[in-house]
Amino acid sequence: MTRYDSLLASVGGTPLVGLPRLSAPFNADGRPQVRIWAKLEDRNPTGSIKDRPALRMIEEAEKSGLLTPGCTILEPTSGNTGISIAMAATLKGYRTVFVMPENTSEERRQLLRMWGAEIVSSPAAGGSNEAVRVAKQIAAEHPDWVMLYQYGNDANALAHEEGTGPEILADLPSITHFVAGLGTTGTLMGVGRFFRKAKAEVRIVAAEPRYGELVYGLRNLDEGFVPELYDADLIDSRFSVGPRDAVRRVRELLELEGIFAGISTGAILHAALGQAAKVAKAGEGADIAFVVADGGWKYLSTGAYEGTIDEAEDRLEGQLWA
Amino acid sequence: MAIEVRIPTILRTYTGGEKAVNADGANLHALIDALDASHPGIKGRLLEDNGDLRRFVNIYINDEDVRFIGSLDAELSDGDQVVILPAVAGGAR
Ligand SMILES: Cc1ncc(COP(=O)(O)O)c(C=O)c1O
């Protein structure tokens, strides 16, 4: 179906596309096929996977009576979730306030302002941890504001358990691996929980961005942060991917398959190709599905898409690129 | 045998400011013991009193989170790279 009653009704139902050229090196003659598939989440209304959890979190909060007409929504976000909430809030009549680390790309800030959001900046050091801390502080000062809190909101994972996961299985019943990025952990928790029940042999693989030192500059190890949603039992392996590999892969995806993705997708593809190499080495076949979390547009100003890989790596130092 | 261990800013007080140090060990357990022998006290920052990895400490061997490959029993070989990082919330959420 391609006709919807409103933009909000069109969230999800994204295409799963095969990547024959990226898969080719793993497929020597006569061996079982290794195929890599991209779930194009940039084809959501605001261009990222976050439309799914944002809409679901708002709907659940409306159902429970927490969110009522005219309410103010407050959320720590460095971009995509904010953009998705802002879009839905525009259509539903809520005011939005977002807490963002100061080292996030200008495109994201500009987009949020266009959707009418107010932005509070949190210090770059400490990354999203600081944004979460500042948002919790503001929430305490404004008890009537509603913080959906994507890091601990079950509706975030539920959007993927009931949407993303079933869509992928329906399109690719032979799936062997699912690979996605790890932020709030909502994507991996939801899709992981779905596959544990629906097809338990599917391996669930996490790709976590590894940033420059600034982001890990906590004053104290006890300030560390693990999202409340995270359950390690729902994933099978977890990889840390630095900016160099992420940039290299995001460029390969564009050059070989024509897909213009955001930088975090490069990190996800890197982990997916690692799985493909491992399976091929063992002489087995595989159908590996990975998430294209968003398009590259919002990251053009980071400089990641121009010049050499070395230059791109240098430019990304100190930026939150995923 | 030489394994490079990358140290996060917050633990460099134990390594005299060094960002990376070399250590030996057939598995992560042995490596952390060796690390503590040359940089006394660092083990207590990585492990709980009961010997488990601390909740806000992540350790990666060749970029893979050790919690999924045997935790402290994860095996090491010459040339492996070990990265220690505090758990933080990352990017574009
Ligand atoms: C671009 C991008 N990549 C990866 C992720 C990770 O997804 P999740 O928060 O569901 O773990 C997100 C969202 O956080 C994202 O916006």
UniProtKB/TrEMBL annotation, chain A:
Residues 10-294 form the Tryptophan synthase beta chain-like PALP domain. Pfam families: PALP. Its cofactor is pyridoxal 5'-phosphate. Gene3D superfamilies: 3.40.50.1100. Keywords: Pyridoxal phosphate. InterPro entries: Cys_Synth/Cystath_Beta-Synth, P-phosphate_BS, TrpB-like_PALP, TrpB-like_PALP_sf. PROSITE patterns: CYS_SYNTHASE (PS00901). This is PLP-dependent cysteine synthase family protein.
Automatic annotation (TrEMBL), chain B:
It comes from the Bacteria. This is MoaD family protein. NCBIfam families: moaD_arch (TIGR01687). Coiled coil: none annotated.
